[in-house]
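Recap from last week: sequence in, structure out.
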Amino acid sequence: MRKIFLIMFLLIFLIVGFLVYDKVIIQLGSENESKNLTS
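Predicted structure tokens:
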């Protein structure tokens, strides 16, 4: 039972981390695009 809970926790942690990482990458990309357009 504890093993299943641990695996579920790890999966949720990985998914949340991936989503946050994806958002940061998109924000950095949009910032670079706006800088290129203004320059």
